[in-house]
Amino acid sequence: MKPMRESSPQICPVPIDQQPVNEYEALKSAWLYSWGQVDLLSYGKNLTRLALLISFIVSPIASASFSVEKQPVQCGFLIVLGICLLLSLFVLRLMLGWRYVGDRLGAETVTYEESGWYDGQVWRKPLEVQTRDQLILRYQVNPVLQRWQNTLKLLGATMAIDILIWTIFRFLH
């Protein structure tokens, strides 16, 4: 009988669902988290649909704050601000999920629990596993993280411009 090499995946003590590569697979197949991997047009459509859904929540709040008949511009600026804010929180949550998996893929060790929170263990990844995980991180996870970060920057800029124009409009009227 030939002895198993220490780097053999068969002797990996980390439970299947806590292995970074399997966490990545689960994340990329999850409905909302997969949005970061679709083509740019589909990504934009998904965020636009979500923004429209959010507008149904934000619009009544904005119209209760400002009269649509008397202050339509202020009401519109508040709606845009609310949509961008809630959309940013949504994108931030998705980005943090991807970052968590990316951090686990990029680490040299894997922290895991065998049966509960009280028995945490650490497993050092063999070189082959580290190399595979680094490739997944570089070519699969990092582009998604970059897309989420760019989206947050765009939403932040939109909110800043919205607030600036709203402030200027307020002083002019």
TrEMBL record:
Domain of life: Bacteria
Keywords: Membrane, Transmembrane, Transmembrane helix
Transmembrane segments: 50-68, 75-96, 154-172
Keyword Transmembrane: yes
Pfam families, per the entry: CGLD27-like
First and last residue of the signal peptide: none
PANTHER family hit by this protein: PROTEIN CONSERVED IN THE GREEN LINEAGE AND DIATOMS 27, CHLOROPLASTIC, PTHR34214
Protein name stated in the entry: Ycf36 protein
Organism from which the protein derives: Synechocystis sp. (strain ATCC 27184 / PCC 6803 / Kazusa)
Gene name of this polypeptide: ycf36
